[in-house]
Structures are given as C-alpha cells and as structure tokens.
Amino acid sequence: MIVGKVIGSVVATRKNDKLIGSKFLIVEPFQKMEGEQGRFVAIDNVGAGIGEIVLVAKGSAARIGCNMEDSPIDAAIIGIVDDGVGLE
Predict the structure, then answer these.
(1) What is the pTM of this model?
(2) What span, in angstroms and rounded, lies between the C-alpha atoms of 61 and 7?
C-alpha cells in the first residue's frame, strides 16, 4: 500500500465500459513512499476529495479491493487517513 495526498481529478467521458461511473483522482505519494514513481491516477470508490490523505492499493490488489476484478484498474483508493503520524 501507498499513502499519498489527492491533488486533483481526471474527467474522462469516453472510457472502457467497465469504468463507467467511476471517479478518478490524481494522487501524489509522500516522498518516503513513492520510490521511482511520482503522481498517478487512481480510481476512487470511498469518496475521497482533493486535499485528503489516502491509502492506495496497486496492481491486482486494487482490482480486488474495489470488487472490479475484470476492470482495467492499476491503482485504487481504498481508505481515507484520519491520522498519519510520521507520514510527512
């Protein structure tokens, strides 16, 4: 899992049929957690908003975590962090 901050959103009117109705947010991982990767887009089905700190699952865990095993999802927001001591 990765912890990051939601910094924006993406609107796509044309997309894969299995993604219709999905909300996409741009997540910036905290520096200690990003490794080689910077910002990325994640599907959101927990109701996160811009400025919130979130937990993100990637790969197959993302698809399983949001019950969309047959969808082309690489990252999913699976939680909103209430208290993140030592994250920044």
Answers:
(1) 0.86
(2) 22
